Amino acid sequence: MDRLFTIVASRTAFAAGQPAAFMVAVLIIVGWGISGPVFGWSDTWQLVVNTGTTIATFLMVFLIQNSQNRDAAAMQAKLDELIRAVHNARNEFVGIEHLTDHEIEAIRRALEESVGTDHAGLGQHQSIARLLKRR
User: Fold this and answer.
1) What is the Cα–Cα distance from 22 to 17, expressed in whole angstroms?
2) For residue 113, what are the CA distances in angstroms to 15, 28, 64, 107, 110?
3) Would residue 108 count as lying in a domain?
């Protein structure tokens, strides 16, 4: 069941992210709008698009969340492997994604302080400041 869901979710998310899918959605809405006079702008006519878009949105939320969860887990596994493989890396960082937001923020702040940056993120990074000024 899990494998089947992953396959269906991946393929659906990929298809939904294509320009053609957007154009189909636009055409459906345009068609619905054009059909308004035919149905006398009735409550049923409005209910059709409201129901359809609500159902599509509801289902897409689950697909998007599933895709993001898989991507994040894969990225964490890759980063953990890099930490493990790099000689001077601190192995304590493997698995920190399971900490609370406050704990992760404290680690981030400590790392920034250890390299001499301020909490705005620029600090002594003059090259970053120059890049931002170019915008």
Assistant:
1) 8
2) 44, 53, 36, 10, 5
3) yes
- Parent domain of 77: 2-87
- pLDDT tens digits, residue range 8-54? 988 999 999 999 999 999 999 999 999 999 999 999 999 999 999 99
**With left for phi above 0 and alpha for psi between -120 and 50, is residue 88 left, alpha or beta?**
alpha
Query: What confidence score (pLDDT) does residue 124 get?
Result: 55
Of 132, 67, 76, whose CA–CA distance to 104 is shortest?
76
94 in a domain, yes or no?
no
Q: Quick one: how far is CA 43 from the chain centroid?
A: 35
Within this chain, do residues 79 and 108 fall inside the same structural domain, yes or no? no
Question: CA quadruple 59, 97, 99, 105: dihedral positive or negative?
Answer: negative
- Residue 10: inside a domain: yes
**Pair of tokens at residue 101:** 């937001």
- Statement to judge: residues 66 and 107 lie in one domain: no
What is the C-alpha separation between 60 and 25, in angstroms, rounded?
A: 13
Say yes or no: 52 and 112 in one domain.
no
